[in-house]
Amino acid sequence: MKKIRGRMDESILVCVYYGPNGERLIRRGHKLAQMMDCPLYVLTVDPLPYDEFDADKSGFVEHWKELCEELDVEEFIIRDKEKRSVKAIKDVAHTYNITQIIIGQSAQNRWEEITKGSFVNVLLREISFIDLHIVSVDRTLKSTDDTIYEKGVRAFIQEDGEVPGQYRLKFTRSKHNLYEGIFYKEIGTDFNNGVFKFVNNKGKTSQVHITENVCTGELKEPPNIDKSIH
């Protein structure tokens, strides 16, 4: 019999897709659940029936089941024959009174409903009452592989008026803004450290690192705010 968690007002759901990052997400969720002393659930969604999973998918599912037992996860949930992953996540969140959801950033290329980074936006719209954490599993991000981010918020980038060539993060609309996007703040920091993600003029998602409100990565894309509207 599982012990009753200390904080039943919080409950975490980790969403995993097929690939090597599933275990990392589960372990990150487990660490967060331990810190908060609250229940942890793990969910995977697939449009195919469970008995039609190929050997690779079945292998990942079995491994995750074993890992969940090892880590004393409350429940490992499989939603097969489900073509609408956002709906499945929303339903499970309601059923288990989930207050926080963890997903992998690179999963954006794999989930069924994702086009041009819209998955996170759709999820935020559908489950606005839940905190969404993005765990970076993109190998192109340096030294942030296991960082957990807070719920994304609308933000802007503008050139620093005092330091030429430096760009700063802002949260209010202004004629000086050059970029509009979503800022994901790292959990556990009092400063605005994290990642600013935006859609460039070609419709592709780009991102830049932010350290204490300042862009520390290079902004290679041209501004995505049309100055002609001001």
UniProtKB/TrEMBL annotation:
GO terms assigned for molecular function: phosphorelay sensor kinase activity
The UspA domain, residue ranges: 11-127
SUPFAM superfamilies attached to this UniProt entry: Adenine nucleotide alpha hydrolases-like
Coiled coil location: none
A Pfam family it matches: Usp
GO cellular component, one term: plasma membrane
Designated name of the protein: Sensor protein KdpD
Native source species: Oceanobacillus oncorhynchi
